């Protein structure tokens, strides 16, 4: 297995392509976006991440990116990393996955290993992916091998990179599973755990992210409750964290963003429903987390009164700190709700300039009736002090990430509200 074709060169596929190229594999990349392909071939990352930008630049010429699906036939391993979102009714949207599988089927060769990393519901590999691949006329687990290995990536993390995060996988056969484990074993420095079936592997990712969604919903609900009681939820969580067993800290915020946590529970909800089971926890968690942008706007309204005509500075558009990823970002909903209240909304995100109407932090916050911190970028946390706010004549602050110095800001005479504090 000396060559690999990565289908989908986004937040998952591009880091994997870089890793494979670094490990000496002949690495091809297939993407339908012509601009993405041109940038990668020029040594430019289309994703704003310092480490990824460095790698793409250094690996220029070692990743052959193209919009021509025929490149698929050149690789011994094919890895599918296309997005699997939900539609407006929160139903799984497998269009990109089906399209990728059709491209593979038209170019499939004997002996190839196909790995689906895209997040999918249990049964997708056998019921959706396999039938499309069989249109090639080749026989599964004889002419080609099919495996699911759910992606695991933590954008912006300095501790957890694609190379050192443990992985799980499950194949249609023992031989295919062994081949996939050998592939990942050659490029990763982490454990590769074999599941007993493809369905188990598919269920792992949904379980991981549903777990996070439910626990974040729990602390978000606590934050709303403690806000009424005059209790600082952040202090309570820190106190509970001193227990060395039986407790894991999660933190409240303006909602849940990113392509995983805000999406994956719906895949599990809809799949279970089709099998005759109705989840209760998961839809409730989604409802609670989806309510948080309105809660944030309510805090701004509490501090400033009627929002019409008020200058509100929204800091951060990305869903998490120090990345440019805006997928499912709750900040976008906060901005939308503020505009519905006829507020004058100023936005600034150093990583998402395309959605910022201010060119600097100072421009955004100057003379603001209320500053709303929506993303805890390091620039914001380091810069936004009580002195900075006073200098720019800021009247109130909503800290939706509980990242600022509440006591100092309040002591400076600036009205302050956090999430549950």
TrEMBL record:
SMART domains: UDPG_MGDP_dh_C. One of its GO terms (molecular function) is UDP-N-acetyl-D-mannosamine dehydrogenase activity. Transmembrane segments: none annotated. Pfam families: UDPG_MGDP_dh, UDPG_MGDP_dh_C, UDPG_MGDP_dh_N. Keywords: NAD, Oxidoreductase. The keyword NAD applies. Gene3D superfamilies: NAD(P)-binding Rossmann-like Domain (3.40.50.720). It catalyses: UDP-N-acetyl-alpha-D-mannosamine + 2 NAD(+) + H2O = UDP-N-acetyl-alpha-D-mannosaminouronate + 2 NADH + 3 H(+). GO terms for biological process: polysaccharide biosynthetic process. Belongs to the UDP-glucose/GDP-mannose dehydrogenase family. This is UDP-N-acetyl-D-mannosamine dehydrogenase. The lineage of its organism: Archaea, Candidatus Iainarchaeota, Candidatus Iainarchaeia, Candidatus Iainarchaeales, Candidatus Iainarchaeaceae.
């Amino acid at each position: 297995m000396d060559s690999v074709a990565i289908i989908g060169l986004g937040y998952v596929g591009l880091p994997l392509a870089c890793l494979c190229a670094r490990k000496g594999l002949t690495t091809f990349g297939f993407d339908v976006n012509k601009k993405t392909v041109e940038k990668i071939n020029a040594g430019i990352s289309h994703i704003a991440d310092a480490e990824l930008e460095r790698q793409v630049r250094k690996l220029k010429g070692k990743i052959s990116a193209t919009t021509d699906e025929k490149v698929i036939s050149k690789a011994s391993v094919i890895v599918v990393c296309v997005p699997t979102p939900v539609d407006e009714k929160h139903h799984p949207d497998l269009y990109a996955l089906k399209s990728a599988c059709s491209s593979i089927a038209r170019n499939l060769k004997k002996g190839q290993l196909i790995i689906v990393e895209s997040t999918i519901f249990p049964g997708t590999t056998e019921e959706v992916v396999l039938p499309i691949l069989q249109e090639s006329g080749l026989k599964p687990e004889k002419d080609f091998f099919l495996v699911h290995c759910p992606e695991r990536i933590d954008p912006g993390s300095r501790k957890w990179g694609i190379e050192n995060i443990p992985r799980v996988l499950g194949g249609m056969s023992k031989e295919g599973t062994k081949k996939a484990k050998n592939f990942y074993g050659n490029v990763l420095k982490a454990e590769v755990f074999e599941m007993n079936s493809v369905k188990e592997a598919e269920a792992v990712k949904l379980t991981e992210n549903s777990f996070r969604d439910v626990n974040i919903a729990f602390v978000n609900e606590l934050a709303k409750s403690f806000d009424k009681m005059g209790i600082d939820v952040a202090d309570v969580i820190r106190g509970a964290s001193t227990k060395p067993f039986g407790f894991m800290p999660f933190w409240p915020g303006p909602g849940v963003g990113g392509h995983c946590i805000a999406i994956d529970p719906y895949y599990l909800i809809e799949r279970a429903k089709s099998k005759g089971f109705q989840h209760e926890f998961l839809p409730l968690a989604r409802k609670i987390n989806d309510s948080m942008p309105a809660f944030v706007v309510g805090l701004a309204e509490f501090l400033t009164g009627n929002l019409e005509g008020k200058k509100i500075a929204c800091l951060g558009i990305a869903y998490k700190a120090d990345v440019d990823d805006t997928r499912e970002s709750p900040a976008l909903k906060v901005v939308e709700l503020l505009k519905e209240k006829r507020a004058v909304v100023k936005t600034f995100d150093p990583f998402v300039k395309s959605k910022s109407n201010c060119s600097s932090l100072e421009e955004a916050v100057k003379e603001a009736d209320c500053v709303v911190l929506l993303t805890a970028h390091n620039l914001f946390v380091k810069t936004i002090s009580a002195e900075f706010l006073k200098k720019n004549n800021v009247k109130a602050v909503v800290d939706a990430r509980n990242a600022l110095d509440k006591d100092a800001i309040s002591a400076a005479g600036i009205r302050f509200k956090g999430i549950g504090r």
